[in-house]
Amino acid sequence: MKNREEPVAVMAAQVTPRAKLSNYPEPFASRMKGREKRALGDLFGLSNFGVNLTRLSPGAASALRHAHSKQDEFIYILHGHPILITDAGETQLSPGMCAGFKAGTGNAHQLVNRTSDEVHFLEVGDRSPGDSAQYLDDDLKALLVEGKWQFTHNDGSLY
Fold first, then answer.
1. Can you tell me the mean pLDDT for 110-116?
2. pLDDT in tens, 73-97
3. Minimal CA–CA distance to 60: which of 13, 96, 110, 95?
4. Do the strands 89-92 and 67-68 form a parallel or antiparallel pair, or are they unpaired?
5. Mean per-residue pLDDT for 110-117?
6. Hey, which of 78, 106, 128, 134 would disulfide with 120, CB 3.0 to 4.6 Å?
7. Which domain holds residue 102?
8. Which DSSP state fits 26?
């Protein structure tokens, strides 16, 4: 049964963006400048998976390059031409293209906007309990505990 406060339908671009730039600790959070996320799945009370409408300004990145242990992820490009960076190298994306990242493969990924135009894309990910993420280019690990990310250095010490 649907909560009466949850809308039936909305214009995705009119959903209020998340107020917080990133869940990452510093010095990583400030590297997400120019990224804006609209949590569409949360708006409808979805709990099994999340859906974000994400905008990247010129020069911005979707996330630090990362790989999940349990969470599958999927992206669909709506506007712009970002670079997808994975362990296989760099791939130019364009509107209508999509990519998926299977959990547990160790294939780290991120999108980077190297153009002078904005990039808009949908990102979908499940919310598997006990998920973790490894950030292969940075001294950072994350563990999902009771729905919240906890961040450590690679040696296990807390941020």
1. 98
2. 999 999 999 999 999 999 999 999 9
3. 110
4. unpaired
5. 98
6. 78
7. 35-152
8. T
Residue with tokens 């010129």: 58
Q: Give residue for tokens 């996320």.
A: 37
Q: In this structure, which amino acid lies at residue 71? A: Q
Of 72 and 128, which is predicted with more confidence? 72
Element (H, E) at 40: helix 40-43
Cα distance between residue 43 and residue 59, in whole Å: 28
With a cut of 60, say whether residue 27 has pLDDT above it.
yes
CA nearest to 115, candidates 88, 138, 92: 92
pTM: 0.93
Which one-letter amino acid corresponds to residue 27?
Answer: P
Q: Is residue 17 part of a domain?
A: no
Both structure tokens of 35: 């990224």
CATH number at residue 41: 2.60.120.10
Q: 110 in a domain, yes or no?
A: yes
Task: Say what the alpha-carbon torsion angle 131, 68, 122, 78 is, to the nearest 10 degrees.
Answer: 180
